[in-house]
Amino acid sequence: MAKIVLNDVSKIHRGGVEALRDVSLDLPDGAITAVTGPAGAGKTTLLRLIAAQDAPTAGTVEVGDAVSQSWRLGRSKVVEFAERGALKGSRNVYDTMAAGLTERGLKRSEAEAAVLKAADAVELGPFMARRVSSLSDGERTRVILGRAFAHQPRAILLDDPFAGLDAVRRMALRRELRALKAAGATILLATHDWTDALALADHLVVLDRGHLVASGPARALYDRPPTAEAARLIGDPPMNVLPVRANQTGLSLEDGTHFGATSVMTTATFALLGVRPEALFAVDDERAPHAAATFPVRVEEIERGANVNLVHGFVGSHAFVGRVAGHVEAPASGLLKLGAAREALVLFDAETGAAA
Ligand SMILES: Nc1ncnc2c1ncn2[C@@H]1O[C@H](COP(=O)(O)OP(=O)(O)OP(=O)(O)O)[C@@H](O)[C@H]1O
Questions:
Q1: Are residues 20 and 120 in the same domain?
Q2: What is the ipTM of this complex?
Q3: Quick check: CB of 44 below 6 Å from ligand 1?
Q4: Looking at 223, 248, 269, which one is the last position of a domain?
Q5: CB of 63 within 8 A of CB of 79?
Q6: Is there a domain that residue 230 lies in?
Q7: Where in this chain does the record put each ABC transporter domain (predicted)?
Q8: pLDDT per residue over 302-325, tens digit each?
Q9: 89 in the same domain as 19
Q10: CB of 13 closer than 6 A to ligand 1?
């Protein structure tokens, strides 16, 4: 197992791009951490620094007992950084998985046993002699994972491991990663995909434009984001966040659109009100539970799915999304009332954005 600690880490790439700024993190060992954030947030840069493939411009990175005073020192023994782009197409699968094992001190026979065992685990046995360039994206991902298994590192870093995998392989990979965790590995994966992140992660790190937006236990961060900024970045679709004004009659938008929500106590006149898309339900549905707040949504589009519908529209002038179960239809007026229970409403400070 290996705990990963970053102290005030910044990384300025050549050309002056500040990919990370003053990031401090303390990641639990023996857990799965998902590093999330929009394109260009700094996810790959963070993984590369932890793997000692690149040096921080400032700050220190510690992995287990390998500290980065000299930033490369000892790190290769504890971290396997699995980058799809780094696979050599002309190598066969066996050599790709075996590369570096003897340098780590394994005898040839031990290296061979480790590779064959790992290949078995990721069902790559029949592929051993195939060139990497002849493999599909999904098969390459399995090579990457197989290599990580064979090396038995204490921390495994995976950059976008689910890209290019079909649904069945995604599920299989999630199972493999859980099994690796159960065997004691610390796993860090960068992903854009919230389904995978939330299905797997014990811990979430949210980055945006190089700064750390949030870090904490995945479920808690998802249910109660610490700031409005985090709320807008966590989940797909993320939480709706509306600027509201409070008085005795409840909460309203600046244009007077009223939500009720008298049960939401706030001493401030202005606040930000958050509600998760999947917490919303159509209030005309007589089976709907009692709504503590009602949002009149001017519907632009309803994306129909097998069990849930994504309602895209506006509340006042603010974009708003509902993920509503069952059949839902926009009324002739175009205004669909979506409600939420009291426990689904989150208030943030209007000035600081901190959760109330
Ligand atoms: N080697 C490099 N030289 C110069 N700039 C770089 C380099 N690597 C990354 N960057 C820049 O640093 C920022 C962060 O990039 P990074 O790849 O870490 O983000 P990311 O969150 O992984 O993005 P994506 O989700 O698109 O893969 C981006 O603006 C990127 O263009």
A1: yes
A2: 0.97
A3: yes
A4: 223
A5: yes
A6: no
A7: 4-234
A8: 999 888 899 999 999 999 999 998
A9: yes
A10: yes
